[in-house]
Amino acid sequence: MRYAHEVDKVRTAERALMARLPDGTLMSRAAAGLASVCARILRGGRPHAEPGLGVYGARVVLLVGGGDNGGDALYAGAGLARRGAGVTAVLAGTKSHEGGLADLRAAGGRVLPVAEEERVATAIDRADLIIDGMLGIGGRGGLREPYAGLARRAADSPAIVVACDLPSGVDASSGQVAGAAVRADVTVTFGTYKPGLLVDPGAEHAGVVELVDIGLGPYLPDPDVCAPLAEDVAVRLPRPTSESNKYRRGVVGVLAGSETFTGAAVLAVGGAVRGGAGMVRFASSEHPVELVRQRWPESVTTVIGDSLDGIGRVQAWVAGPGLGTDERAEALLAQVLATDLPVLVDADGLTVLARRRDLLWRDAPTVLTPHAGELARLLGTDAGEIEARRLEHVRRAAEELTATVLLKGSTTLIAEADRPVRVNPTGTPWLATAGSGDVLSGLTGALLAGGVPAIDAAATGAYLHGLAARLSADPYGDGAAPISAYDVLDALPEAFRTLAG
Ligand SMILES: NC(=O)C1=CN([C@@H]2O[C@H](COP(=O)(O)OP(=O)(O)OC[C@H]3O[C@@H](n4cnc5c(N)ncnc54)[C@H](O)[C@@H]3O)[C@@H](O)[C@H]2O)[C@@H](O)CC1
Ligand SMILES: Nc1ncnc2c1ncn2[C@@H]1O[C@H](COP(=O)(O)OP(=O)(O)O)[C@@H](O)[C@H]1O
Ligand SMILES: [K+]
After folding, report:
1. Does the Cβ of 14 fall within 6 Å of ligand 1?
2. Which residues does the annotation say bind AMP (predicted)?
3. Exposure pattern of 77-103 as b/e (b: 16+ CB <10 Å)?
């Protein structure tokens, strides 16, 4: 698991640790870690695997702000200068870290005030590697000048950009980017991950994130956000044993599709079948039932009117994809939510819930899987607001709607009240294709029916779904192609095997 802490918690932990150490110890640990990652990158090591030019003679530019983030960059630059790099520090703050500046000078580094615009521009344009040390966890809001101009210039330079602690302009606690911000190829972060490095839009600005241990671990409280690694997800996968039969593995009820929308039902049932359900019971009107029966003969289908009576026993429900939003859909959704079973609500089901939030007052687990537009309807705001502050909104939704909320998008977030928000690390932008969300709901429903707790089912579903999409869009890791929701379904067995193996 990668754990992330908000700024106030990082500061409290840093204070506790600093009180036990000689002055400057933490900064020198941070700077040493940063310098060694930069040296590795210059030599062509991971996470930049291209043949490197080496540290000796490399042109390194430090963008130095007025706070401790600038101090880290100056000390790291001094370290690189001692290994033979040509280091230029661009001083952009109203002041600069004195110790760091003295160390850089002593190591033979060059110093340029930001006001020397032409020389600064030339240095940035010719750099092999740029260290962004303008703002760290002390940053607030979008970058102001002259930082914003330096960030733009760095973006146009062919240099590799390495952010110190976090890309300047990214809000450390939320991932919000309110204006200009640095786009890094690599971010070297200290002590713990910051939520803004894992959650978009910040995550996208951070590139590959490397954590440097500065000894903060014992002083950190519970995390605010975490991103599971493959092994964290693998242990939660339900695996059939010799004791298993189709009922014990979990029966999923899928309430989806309508005379107008049939594809969503076929995909959601497919997600449930490929998600490892022992059995899928599909309830809908005539046309979708006919199509599901043809494509998934292994499912048990029932044509229903406006009642679910006679469907048979299930252990969890998936309700909503293609269901429509009329009174019948509302009545059926109400019946599903009146059960004492785990229920996942998606798509049209969420639109119905936006006008019938009272249906969420239940004791059994409820998982909601909105995209930003659907969540906006549920919370009475607009999608742009949700996208800009995804973390805040997914938390608010989990609390107000008393549900496990999986917010889809470029980084999928999963929230449940009083728990760290989980960030899904898999996926690809190629997944943004019609119908892929229906596959996710079926798949997650199968995990719920298999007895996986709601937050783990949602996190495992999102992980497998994103992995399947990646395996299908870019099977050899050498170039991606467009995929359909069906391709994601077809890649699910391989995603399971990859994860379990
Ligand atoms: N406190 C510690 O123990 C450690 C701190 N470290 C470093 O210290 C950093 C935090 O240092 P600071 O607290 O000095 O804060 P920063 O260096 O992040 O920046 C603070 C300064 O930036 C200005 N500023 C804020 N937002 C701005 C904006 N949008 N545009 C322009 N200027 C803006 C503020 O006025 C303030 O002067 C960490 O990110 C990390 O890099 C590391 O050395 C590890 C140890
Ligand atoms: N920019 C993106 N990068 C990566 N994944 C994305 C992006 N945009 C959307 N997705 C993913 O694509 C899927 C789309 O689901 P959804 O919006 O429900 O579509 P549909 O309703 O057509 O099935 C979700 O899993 C979502 O997380
Ligand atoms: K920075």
Report:
1. yes
2. 408-412, 437
3. bbbbbbbebbbbbbbbbeebbeebbeb
Q: How many domains does the chain have?
A: 2
Which of 37, 96, 137 to probe ligand 1 with, by most ligand atoms within 8 A of CB?
137
Q: Is 139 in the pocket of ligand 1 (CB under 6 A)?
A: yes
Query: Please, what's the largest Cα pairwise distance for the chain?
Result: 82
Q: Tell me: the pLDDT tens digits for 9-64?
A: 999 999 999 999 999 999 999 999 999 999 999 998 777 666 678 999 999 999 99
Encoding tokens for residue 287?
């046309």
Same domain, 247 and 167: no
Q: Tell whether the model's pLDDT for residue 406 goes beyond 80.
A: yes
Q: How far does the centroid of ligand 2 lie from the alpha carbon of residue 241, in Å?
A: 33
For 291-346, give the DSSP string.
HHHHH-TTSEEEE-SS--TT----SEEEE-TT--SSHHHHHHHHHHHTSSS-EEE-
233 found inside a domain: no
> What's 354's domain CATH number?
3.40.1190.20
At CA 295, angle to CA 286 and CA 260, rounded to 5?
Answer: 40
**Whether residues 318 and 429 fall in one domain:** yes
Q: Tell me, what's the ipTM?
A: 0.90
Query: 405: alpha, beta or left, given left = phi > 0 and alpha = psi -120 to 50?
Result: beta
Domain that holds residue 292: 242-500
- Binding residue per annotation — 410? yes
Judgement on whether residues 334 and 458 belong to the same structural domain of the protein: yes
Looking at the fold, whether 305 and 448 belong to one and the same domain comes out as: yes
Atom nearest to 369 CA in ligand 2: 18
Q: Using most ligand atoms within 8 A of CB, pick from 377, 390, 407, 408 the residue to mutate for ligand 2.
A: 408
Q: Say how many Å lie between the CA of residue 136 and the centre of ligand 3.
A: 5
Radius of gyration over every alpha carbon of the chain, rounded to an integer in angstroms = 26
Give the whole-angstrom CA distance, residue 376 versus residue 469: 26
Same domain, 65 and 204: yes
* pLDDT of amino acid 246: 78
Q: Are residues 97 and 132 in the same domain?
A: yes
Of 227, 257, 277, the last residue of a domain is: 227
Question: For residue 49, what pLDDT is reported?
Answer: 61
The CB of 165 under 6 Å from ligand 1? The reply is: yes
pTM here is: 0.93
Q: Which of 170, 202, 227 is the last residue of a domain?
A: 227
